[in-house]
Automatic annotation (TrEMBL):
Transmembrane segments: none annotated. CDD domains: TrHb3_P. GO terms for molecular function: heme binding; oxygen binding. The lineage of its organism: Bacteria, Pseudomonadati, Bacteroidota, Flavobacteriia, Flavobacteriales. This is Globin. It comes from the Bacteria. InterPro entries: Globin-like_sf, Globin/Proto. SUPFAM superfamilies: Globin-like.
Length: 127
């Protein structure tokens, strides 16, 4: 039986396995190519893990503006509605592979909410 997400280490596992999927996907890889080229993937994963740790466990470690980061990225490589569908799918699949429970559901629900807000802000929700 799977357990629920209960620590930052659990989140780090999810984020690491999730990024394995993203980086193997030809449609998603371009969004992370600069991070890979600069050898910043480990640093990036730590930041994303901090973000989700804050979301799930009410910590205060993430200090960036997640929406602004994506708006900035959109200047160089355009997000499409499909990218968010892929992102949410991989994210949920990864969580479901390793965990189940209240925090797991909360993380998937929050990811879907974040993706929806980003699509609205990027004006691609209905495209």
């Amino acid at each position: 039986m799977k357990t629920d997400i209960s620590s930052r280490n659990d989140i780090k596992l999810i984020i690491t396995k999730f990024y394995d999927k993203l980086l193997a996907d030809k449609k998603m890889y371009p969004f992370f190519e600069d991070i890979i080229k600069r050898n910043h993937l480990d640093y990036h994963l730590e930041i994303i893990t901090d973000f989700w740790n804050d979301v799930l466990f009410d910590t205060i470690t993430y200090s960036n503006n997640v929406m602004q980061k994506h708006l900035d990225k959109n200047t160089f490589i355009k997000f499409q509605k499909e990218h968010f569908s892929i992102w949410v799918s991989y994210f949920s699949q990864t969580i479901d592979t390793y965990f189940e429970g209240e925090k797991s559901t909360q993380m998937k629900t929050r990811a879907l909410s974040i993706a929806t807000v980003m699509k609205l802000k990027l004006n691609i929700y209905k495209k």
